[in-house]
Amino acid sequence: MKSIFKRVAAAVLIGAMLPGVSACGESDAGSADEIKIGLIYAHSGSAEMIESLSEKAALLAINEINDAGGINGKQLTAVSEDWESDEAKATEKAKKLYLQDGVNIILGTCLGTGTQAVRSVAEENGKLFIAPTAGSGEDESPNMIFTGGTTYTFTKELIPFMAEKFGNRVFCVGSDYYYPVRIEAQTKALIDQIGGELVGSAFLPMEATDCSAVITKIMQAKPDFVYANVVGSTTATFYQQMKEYGLDIPIASVITSEMDAITLGGEYISGSYSAFNWFASSENPLSVSFLENFEKAYGRDDMLKVNATITASYSSIYLIAEALKSANSQSTDDLKAALATAEVDTPQGMFSVDAENAYYAKNYAMIIEWNDQARPVTVFASENQLPAEPWPVLLFPNGKP
Amino acid sequence: MAILPIQLMNGLFAASVLLLVSIGMVVIFGNMNVVNLAHGEFIMAGAYTAWGLCELGLPFSLSVIGAFALTAILGALCERLVIKRFYARLEETLLATYAISVIMTQIARLLFSSMKKLVPLPVSGGLSIGSLVFPAYNFVVIAVAVFVVLFVCVLFYKTGLGKKIRAIRQNRQMAQCLGINTAVTDTISFGLGCGLAGLAGAIIAPLKIVYPAMGSAYLMDSFSTVVVGGVDSFVGTAMASGLISESTSVLGGFMSEIYAQIIVLIGIILVLRFRPNGLFSKEKR
Predict the structure, then answer these.
(1) Ramachandran region of residue A312, left (φ > 0), alpha (ψ -120 to 50) or beta?
(2) Which of A10, A78, A123, B57 has fewest C-beta within 10 Å?
(3) A11/B207 touch (CB, cutoff 8 Å), yes or no
(4) Which member of A45, A216, A237 has the closest CB to residue B3?
(5) B111 vs A84, A118, B211, CA distance in Å?
(6) A151-276+365-381, what's its fold?
(7) Local confidence band at A4 (pLDDT 50, 70, 90 cut-offs)
(8) pLDDT digits over A219-242, tens only?
């Protein structure tokens, strides 16, 4: 038996090395007329779909900036690495970018495991890391920024909106990992505050392919709406089975995005709601032109999948560029100071880091309803930027513990 | 509304899915003693074929037949080109089938990108039993599972081909001496096993989403079902699918599904501790 394991291990090792060989970036430190930005996105594994498009969005922004003359005369150069949706790989690739390629700032990874891995490396080495997504809060780091702010910001808008429209009996469903579990705790506090009732909650195993037990529980609890934060391939299964079991209960989510909607089609997603910092229905002229340019560069099929996280990759490059411009330096401290005050107009509206919580960017909130073409229709858009709330007052009345 | 009848019914449906994805493995693992690590990828290939044929405008039923045929041919090819050379060498077949699984996933990724595809349900809407409503397609899946088990049982126990396959399983050399062309029979049974996996993929395609890595989820499920049922027993696998799915489903109705899964997995370990050859394996000399 020993020989089997040896052989399997050898095969796995060789397999693991192959993509690394091809993905090797140039290892010289940045020359005088270029500024390097590290990009870590997954090209395989569970995060592949969203992250390969996120990388395309980031590259689009870098090309636009370079075409417009670069930053103080220097060209931006992307050094791309693939973390294969594997946190150990993410650590390895982040180390390579920071230490070998001499990159000071990395943008990438939308998945919790990846962001935590890159963040640790950034902290260890005193470098900067930007994640183009929202954090679940109750956490902060001096070396990292979540440009999507905190999920709570959107939950706080979505729950009262749904309660007013449909009634305040809520059923919470989530995938069984840290992020949805935090969201559920926050939702419970919000429902209490508006005098509603959490009539049930359930967590689904990751990559569950059958949601019928949870749907039976929902049938019995008879909620006015379901707050579902299910991830991965289970998202489609959940929305589909809700309709197939004849449940006509509206579903609200801060995770379901354009990408899930396109897979599902209008038949299953129409009449459901989502909230986040951006949707393709945004009327911001920069958003409209971003989608046009994305379509021109990568085709209509890819454009239809563009969601908030992909857009945030694009916007984050502009935020980084603004900071690089005003700092006119690449040192971590100068960049950090510049990022804290940088403000830039993006498809997602004015983009800036929350001075109170440098860990999170400030964001606008949008609520949308999915139509029968599986496209978003704006039903609410906040007028002002909303502060991130990593420690929601409802759960932490005395502030950060 | 009583939770028990609903979950029993849901369990029956889940059992049918599990049985469909496992039955091809019984043919290959039970009769040929090959652990096919690419089993999940043949399911994926069947799902993609069904999706592709539906996109071309073929009715769903024809797509399912097409998926069976295509994956069976693919399986037969794999047997002829690769597996054939490794019979009775467990380690090599493990590596070879693992390689096939990686190659198939990557080809799917190149052909279809990693974007998830959704096959429309051939029958939508619900059927009600009393006051309970179940998706109509669930009943189709249950019927297909019953049909497939009957089909393989008849094939294995009532036809000449089945007799040949069973004879080879019992004593390969003696079967050869008696003039059975074992090479052709092997190719047919490996193709049949892969075809059944492909058929399962086509049937479950409308229930789940289709993507290149979807197969891996089913490999462990079908492997544990086959081992619990007894590796060479179709009836055993059917019973094991029923037991595993019904207990997960019923327990899941009363507690968190995660705990239900843990309890069932502990049950599987206990079963294998006391009946290492599976619940329904025949006594062997």
Answers:
(1) alpha
(2) B57
(3) no
(4) A216
(5) 19, 32, 11
(6) Rossmann fold (3.40.50)
(7) low
(8) 889 999 999 998 888 888 899 889
Exposed/middle/buried for A55, CB within 10 Å: 0-12, 13-18, 19+? buried
- A264: which chain B residues are within 8 Å (Cβ-Cβ)? 118
Chain A residues closer than 8 Å to B114 by CB: 44, 48-49, 52
What does the domain layout of chain A look like in residue ranges?
Answer: 31-148+287-362, 151-276+365-381
Flag if A265 and B256 touch (Cβ within 8 Å): no
Same fold yes or no, A31-148+287-362 and A151-276+365-381: yes
Pick from B118, B246, B251 the residue to mutate for testing the A interface (most A CBs within 10 Å).
B118
pTM confidence score: 0.82
Contacts of A46 in chain B (CB under 8 A): 213
Residue A45 has pLDDT above 80, yes or no: no
DSSP of A329-375: S--HHHHHHHHHH-EEEETTEEEEE-SS-TTBEEB--EEEEE-TTS-
The pLDDT of residue B65 is 96
Decide if B76 is inside a domain.
yes
- Residue B101 within any structural domain of the chain: yes
* B235 lies in some domain: no
* pLDDT over 80 at A363, yes or no: yes
Closest CA to A106 of A119, A116, A92: A119
- B126 within a domain of the structure (yes/no): yes
A3 is written with which tokens? 């020989």
Domain range holding B53? 15-214
Model pLDDT for residues B237-251, shown as the tens digit of each residue? 999 999 999 999 889
DSSP, collapsed to helix, strand or coil, labels residue B39 as helix
**Count of structural domains, chain B:** 1
User: Which residues of A touch chain B, with CB atoms under 8 Å apart?
Assistant: 3-4, 7-8, 11, 15, 44-46, 48-49, 52, 176, 202-205, 207-210, 212-214, 216-217, 219-220, 233, 236-237, 240-241, 244-246, 263-265, 267, 301, 305
SS3 call for A377: strand
What SS3 state is found at A252?
Answer: strand
Q: Looking at the complex, report in whole angstroms how far the Cα of residue B248 sits from the nearest Cα belonging to chain A.
A: 9
Name the residue of chain B whose CA is nearest to A217's CA.
B253
Whether residues A212 and B10 touch (CB distance < 8 A) is answered with yes
Chain A CB contacts of B7 under 8 Å are 212-213, 216
Which of B125, B211, B253 comes nearest A233 by C-beta?
Answer: B211
All residues of chain B having their beta carbon less than 8 Å from the beta carbon of residue A44 are: 109, 114
Q: Under DSSP, is residue A278 helix (H, G, I), strand (E, B) or coil? A: coil
> 3-class SS at A376?
strand
Name the nearest CA neighbour of A381 among A308, A300, A290: A308
Under CATH, which architecture does the A31-148+287-362 domain have?
A: 3-Layer(aba) Sandwich (3.40)
Q: What is the pLDDT of residues B139-152, one digit of tens each?
A: 999 999 999 999 99
Judge: B133–A212 Cβ closer than 8 Å, yes or no: no
Q: pLDDT band at A60, cuts 50/70/90?
A: very high
Chain B residue with CA closest to A203: the answer is B256
pLDDT above 70 coverage of chain A, percent: 91
Question: Inter-chain contact A216–B7, Cβ cutoff 8 Å?
Answer: yes
Give per-residue pLDDT as tens, B169-225. 888 889 889 888 989 999 999 999 999 999 999 999 988 889 888 888 888 888 889
Q: Do B135 and A244 touch (CB under 8 A)?
A: yes
**How many residues make up chain A in this entry?**
401
| Res B283: pLDDT | 60
Test B116 with A49 for CB contact under 8 angstroms: yes
Contacts of B94 in chain A (CB under 8 A): 4, 8
Q: How far apart are CA A229 and CA A241, in angstroms?
A: 15
